[in-house]
Structures are given as C-alpha cells and as structure tokens.
Amino acid sequence: MKPKIICHIFSSVDGRLLNERWTRPYDGKAPGEICGVYAEVGKELRTQAWMFGKNTLQQLYFPEVFIHAEKDETRDVTTYLGHRASERLFVVADPTGEITYTSDTVRGDNIVTILGEQVSGSYLKHLRDMGISYLFAGTDGCDLPLAMHKLRAEFGIRSLTLQGGGMINGSFLKAGLLDELSLLVYPGIDGLAGVPSIFEYLGGEEEFPASGQALELLDASVLENGVVKLHYKFHRI
C-alpha cells in the first residue's frame, strides 16, 4: 500500500516553473501578487503530508551542504521516528544526505527525509540530534515505491501532495506513483527552451516516462487574476 499521491504544481502557460521568469499579466501585477493562490489550493487538497525534492528544499530553506565525517560511525538502516508534533508531515527525498538542517520543521510541519542506505552514520546522527525522522529507500535511496510504502506503513500517511520541481515530479511519473495532477496555470509565458518544466525525467529518447498512463479531467475552473485550475486523475492503461 502507498499513500494517494497528488502532484500539485504551478506553471506558466508553456509549462515552465521559474516564476521569476514569467511575463506579467496584462494588468501589470507582479507574479508574486498572484502566486499565493497555489498555497491556498494546496491546503484545499487536505493531504496528510506534502513533499519537495532535495534541490527545492535547499533553495528555499536549508542551503548549507552537510560535510560527512572521514571516520564514520556504524550505520543502522532502520526507520527512525523523530519529533512529530504537527498534524501534517513534510517529506523530502535526499538520497545522499546533503541537507544540513537548522530546524526539524518546514512551515511548522515535522520533517521526514528519504535516504539511501549508503548515507553516512554521522549524517544519521545529525538527523537524530535534530529530531528529524528518516526512512531508507534502497541502497541508492531512489526506490520511490518502497519509500511510499514505508510512509504509509510506518508513518500512517494515507495522502501526500508532491510539490517539488520537475525532476522529482518526473521520477514519480516514471514510477507510476501519481494518482492525481492538480495543475494551476499562471497567465504568463517563459518561452526559453531548457527552463525547468512540470515533468523532467532524465532518460534517453527511447524512454517514455508517462507510458501506460492517461489523464481524466475531473475539474476545470478559472480563479482570480486569470489563473486556471485543472484537476486530473491518472489512469493505468
């Protein structure tokens, strides 16, 4: 069993994610004046946890990279249950243990980090000292189905909102883990090739990350300031 997973994302009309690059709406408002609707809709999804990838979390909250000790401690690769005072949990995928934490919460929600089994013992000690929960997703930390199973079985998480960048969205898409897509479309354009987009799976041209999946439109509506809300269900075909 895994949680119900909703990919919740805010993009320009051309699917780009860097809001500092988006054109302004016709009435001249700044993107920042409009982007608050993303958090509002996210709360309406009422999931028990929400999730970023490592890069997004470092950019927004914890930029310092962890320095692993040369002489390391013995690793214990069992799940660790840290502080849990918040109603919701925040989940991050950090397979190699790069994030140095200065808090055990993100926006008030206690953190659970997904690791690879090769992460150093000194890093695990850092997490325990901070009261941060962790679980292991295989040797390299990239076994997302296993990680989601553990979130459900060991943390009781039945629903999760994936709010990461295109890379982690692409990984979940490739793994066939997405149940719904909550897409907010901002009334502006980026236009530059190569800028991060909604789904960014790194693979060869012979790979089709969305293969065997189809979307059913559940809801479409226009919100304030010209933002369009699209809600889809994933079907396995």
Overview of the structural elements:
The chain is of the alpha/beta class and 237 residues long. The protein folds into 2 domains: 1-48 and 158-237, Dihydrofolate Reductase, subunit A (3-Layer(aba) Sandwich), CATH 3.40.430; 53-157, no CATH class. Helix content is 22%, strand content 25%. It is built from 6 helices and 10 strands. It has helices spanning 31-34, 36-44, 54-60, 121-130, 144-155, 166-174, and strands at residues 4-11, 49-53, 89-93, 105-106, 109-115, 133-136, 159-162, 180-185, 213-222, 228-236. Strands 1, 2, 3, 4, 5, 6, 7, 8, 9 and 10 form a 10-stranded mixed β-sheet that branches. The longest helix is centred in the middle third of the chain and has 12 residues, at 144-155. The two termini are 20 Å apart. The model has no long low-confidence stretch (mean pLDDT 93).
Low-pLDDT ranges: none
The CATH architecture of the largest domain can be named as: 3-Layer(aba) Sandwich
Main sheet overview: 10 strands, mixed
Structural class: alpha/beta
Radius of gyration: 18 Å
N-C termini distance = 20 Å
Mean pLDDT: 93
Could you estimate the helical fraction of the residues in percent? Answer: 10-25%
CATH names the topology of the largest domain as Dihydrofolate Reductase, subunit A
CATH level 1 class label of the largest domain: Alpha Beta
Give the number of helices. 6
Shape: globular
Got a strand count?
10
The CATH superfamily of the largest domain bears the name Dihydrofolate Reductase, subunit A
Q: What is the total domain count?
A: 2
Q: Tell me what portion of residues adopts beta-strand conformation.
A: 25-35%
The SSE string, one letter per element, is: EHHEHEEEHEHEHEEE
